[in-house]
Amino acid sequence: MLWRIDPASDEPLYTQLVTQAHLAAARGELTPGDRLPSARELAESLDLNVHTVLKAYQQLRDEGLIELRRGRGAVVAARAATDLSPVEQALTALVRVAREAKLSTETLTVLVKEAMNR
């Protein structure tokens, strides 16, 4: 899995990591038993503070996506698989309708974020 962050984004860096892990698990890029890089390795590769990565890993643990094991690091949990296909189908339809309405990516993003916060 390739980890990416956008330092210019309004979304906190640890949240970006959490989101990427969930999406990778849903798409089958991360499967139960897979090991994630150590917090130190990931922090160095992304030029982040190790505590940022640890916060993301702790949230992923709390959400049940990973297990943190002493000596083994972060491992994708058995119950991590999620089927995103209905969501992806709905998003495809949403994007098609938004394009027909000539909405910008930014406007659509704001609309989705507002809907998620309701």
Structure, described:
- By secondary structure, this protein is mainly alpha-helical.
- The chain is 53% helix and 7% strand.
- The chain has two domains: 13-80, Winged helix-like DNA-binding domain superfamily/Winged helix DNA-binding domain (Arc Repressor Mutant, subunit A, Orthogonal Bundle), CATH 1.10.10.10; 85-116.
- It has helices at residues 13-26, 39-46, 50-62, 85-100, 105-116; strands spanning 66-69, 73-76.
- A two-stranded antiparallel sheet has the order 1-2.
- Strand 1 and strand 2 form a beta hairpin.
- Helix 1 (13-26) packs across helix 3 (50-62) and helix 2 (39-46) packs across helix 3 (50-62).
- The radius of gyration is 16 Å and the shape is globular.
- The model has no long low-confidence stretch (mean pLDDT 90).
- Pfam families: GntR.
- Keywords: DNA-binding, Transcription, Transcription regulation.
- This is GntR family transcriptional regulator.
- Residues 11-79 form the HTH gntR-type domain.
Q: What's the overall geometry?
A: globular
Strand content: 5-15%
> Helix segment count?
5
* Order of strands in the sheet with most strands: 1-2
Supply the CATH superfamily name of the largest domain: Winged helix-like DNA-binding domain superfamily/Winged helix DNA-binding domain
Q: What CATH architecture label of the largest domain applies?
A: Orthogonal Bundle
* Helix-strand pattern: HHHEEHH
Output mean pLDDT.
Answer: 90
Query: In angstroms, what is the radius of gyration?
Result: 16 Å
Q: CATH fold name of the largest domain, please?
A: Arc Repressor Mutant, subunit A
Q: How would you sum up the major sheet?
A: 2 strands, antiparallel
Helix content: 40-55%
Number of strands: 2
- pLDDT < 50 runs, ≥5 residues: none
Distance between the termini: 32 Å
CATH class of the largest domain: Mainly Alpha
Structure class: mainly alpha
In total, the number of domains comes to 2
